[in-house]
Amino acid sequence: MKLPISAELLDGCVLALLAQQDYYGYALTQQLQTTLPISESTLYPVLRRLKKQNCLETYDQPFNGRNRRYYRLTLDGTQRLAEIRQEWATYKQALDWLLEGNHD
Prior knowledge:
The protein is of the alpha+beta class.
């Protein structure tokens, strides 16, 4: 996809994935990359921002002698995701109307 994604939509995508399950950073990047051209260096500031906004919390799990930091959705994150989904539905409907040309 060549269209840029806004920070708000990227937040929504991250929150939507974390609503399904907890992820550690690299696995979350891999999952996002199945749909969006995103790098780890782009994702980690998003995760820090969402954590600062109390949308996410973290916990560590040992793995092969190291710790993996997992991200989990909070209640605030669930509410923010609902807001973004509503905003997206309205935005998508408006764009569909414009781009599809069905203005009757």
